[in-house]
Design brief:
globular; Cytidine Deaminase, domain 2; 146 residues; six-stranded mixed beta sheet; two-stranded parallel ribbon; alpha/beta; 8 strands
């Protein structure tokens, strides 16, 4: 079960709202299986229907993780008017090349977190996308500050 702080959830929701009318996207870094930081990444599609992360920004984040010892905990993005559930396009993009769903996903251990702005407050849900395009929801534990 992924655990994530209320502060990181709030950061993802704020990012989703800031990028309206388009989908927002980013990455969550982890350490020892815990989510530790959120990183906004430009949606180069600039679209309310799909996202594509800026590849240079993704490379910089990957290099920084290599140096810090952190891992990719999650990829997140928003849906501006639909459910917090991976769309067929989201599933295709989880593979390289996109759509090659019979291969292993690009990031098999990372969660895919979706923020739906269809609701107020927004719904935030986590998933794994598996070989074959199978979607598995993972209960998201939001840790409140003490």
């Amino acid at each position: 079960m992924p655990r994530i702080s209320r502060a990181l959830v709030d950061e993802m929701v704020a990012h989703a709202r800031d990028d309206l009318p388009n989908e927002a996207c980013g990455q969550i870094n982890g350490r020892d299986g815990e989510a530790v930081s959120a990183h906004r990444v430009k949606n180069v599609e600039a679209s309310p229907y799909r996202y594509s992360m800026d590849p240079l920004a993704m490379l910089k984040l990957e290099n920084a993780r290599d140096e810090s010892g952190e891992t990719l905990f999650a990829i997140y993005h928003s849906h501006v008017a639909s459910e917090a559930y991976p769309s067929p396009t989201d599933v295709r993009q989880a593979f390289f090349p996109p759509g090659e769903v019979e291969r292993d996903p690009m990031y098999p251990d990372a969660y895919y977190i979706l923020v739906s702005l269809k609701y107020d407050p927004p719904h935030v849900r986590a998933f794994h996308i598996r070989t074959g395009g199978e979607i598995e929801e993972e209960p998201l534990e939001v840790v409140e500050p003490s």
